[in-house]
DNA sequence: GAAAAGATTACCT
DNA sequence: GGTAATCTTTTCC
């Protein structure tokens, strides 16, 4: 398992992210995402993600590498943070050019904030553009904790993605069925067996 | 250079 | 359910 001895605690390693993007997306549900601060560590349990894959017209990587999406082509486990309107959103890179958008989480400390929605999740965790390009498998301050996964495959809902204008029908949004922290619009999807 | 679009959210009716 | 806010990146002339 994770053998790295860093001060921030155990974290998922490269091999976790170096798998097919849909597999990683589903496997991230129920896991704990952490962001170390100077004096604090904030944590959320991931309840909703979206996959962005090769030949996907809705993906930021669809038209090739630009300055903005540079980190989306980096190693598996790299954090890709981009700005949209007034907020930032975070992705975890799987295979270079593919990524999983972190759309919503449940606070680990109840009543401590609202991580429902990709912008809110980043605000809750304190993720900023300074975190773009950091390696979550190594010493980056943002990472996913191994070993704790509270999402049964039988409760994973598959549905179309949110807020895009192209490839709108692809079923690449994954969420924990019935979880109150899943963002709006509420998924009207299909149960998928593992 | 200028203009349009955007992986969103808050607040309106 | 619809729309404005708001600003960076990308695209077009």
Summarize the structure.
With 194 residues, the chain is mainly beta. Helix content is 10%, strand content 27%. The chain has 3 helices and 9 strands; from the N terminus they run ααβββββαββββ.
Can you put this structure into words, describing what you see?
This protein is mostly beta strands. Helix content is 10%, strand content 27%. It has three helices and nine strands, in the order ααβββββαββββ. It has helices at 14-17, 21-28, 118-125; strands spanning 32-36, 41-52, 79-84, 87-93, 99-107, 142-144, 156-159, 173-176, 190-191. Strands 1, 2, 3, 4, 5, 6, 7, 8 and 9 form a nine-stranded antiparallel beta sheet that branches. β1 and β2 form a beta hairpin. It starts with 13 loop residues before the first helix and ends with a strand. It binds a DNA duplex (13 and 13 nucleotides) through β3, β4 and α3.
**Biggest beta-sheet profile:** 9 strands, antiparallel
- Could you name the ranges where pLDDT drops below 50 across 5 or more consecutive residues? 2-6
**Strand content range:** 25-35%
Q: Helical amount among residues, as a percent range?
A: 10-25%
Count of runs of 4 or more consecutive helical residues? 3
Detail the topology: elements first, then pairings.
Blueprint: H1 14-17, H2 21-28, E1 32-36, E2 41-52, E3 79-84, E4 87-93, E5 99-107, H3 118-125, E6 142-144, E7 156-159, E8 173-176, E9 190-191
Antiparallel strand pairs: 1-2, 1-6, 2-5, 2-8, 3-4, 4-5, 7-8, 7-9
This protein binds a DNA duplex (13 and 13 nucleotides) through strand 3, strand 4 and helix 3.
Describe this protein with a few key phrases.
194 residues; mainly beta; nine-stranded antiparallel sheet; 3 helices; 10% helix; 27% strand; disordered N terminus; DNA-binding
